[in-house]
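Entry:
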Amino acid sequence: MKLINKFLLSLLVSLSFVGSCMAADEAPDALIKRLSQEILDIAKADKDIQSGDQKRVFEIVESKILPHIDFTRMTSLAAGKNWRDASPEQQKQLINEFRTLLVHTYSGAISQIKDQKVEFKPFRGAPDDTEVEVKSQVIQTRGEPLQLSYRLAKSATGWKIYDINVLGAWLVETYKGSFAAEVTKSGINGLIKTLVEKNKKLATPSASKTAAK
C-alpha cells in the first residue's frame, strides 16, 4: 500500500487540468512540466485542501487530474489477458470501478503535497512518436529524490497518461498481479465485486484517512 501511495502522490504532484485551450499537438514533456507546476500551486494555495475538505479534494481530482488519464487503456493493461474474456458490460464496470478506486486513493494522497518540487530529465521523444516516456524526479526536503517515468499515448485530444513508473515499478503492473489473482479465484465478476466493496470502504471518512497514511 505504501508503494501505491507513492505512485499516487507522485501523480498528484505531476498532474493538473490545462483547460480547453490546451493544444492537441503540445509536446508531451511540455504538457507534463506545465501540469506539474499547476498542481503544486493548487495544492499549496487552496485553504480548503490544506484543511482536509474531502469534497474540495474530490472536485480537484475529478476536474483537474482525471481528464489526463486514459482509464480504458490503463484498465485493460491491468486486467491483462482477462480483458479479452470480459464482456463489454464487464469491461465498462471494470473501468468505472478502477477509476473510482484511484479517485479515492488520489484524494487520500493529495493532502501529502507540501513543499515538493519536480525536475525533468532530457526528453528523448521524436516529433512523429505516438507513444513516449517522460522521465522526472520529485525533490523532497527529506529523503532521496523519487524517480518517476510516465508513459503517454497521443490521442485526437492530446497526450494521455496510461502508466506511471515509481522507483522502477510500473503502476499497471502493480495492479495486474492482484487483478489476475482475483480473476483466478472468483472470475471477472469476482474482481468487479472486490473493487466495488473496496470502493465502498474507501468512501467512508475513516477509510479515506487510512488510505492517506
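Residues 6 and 191 are 24 Å apart (CA to CA).
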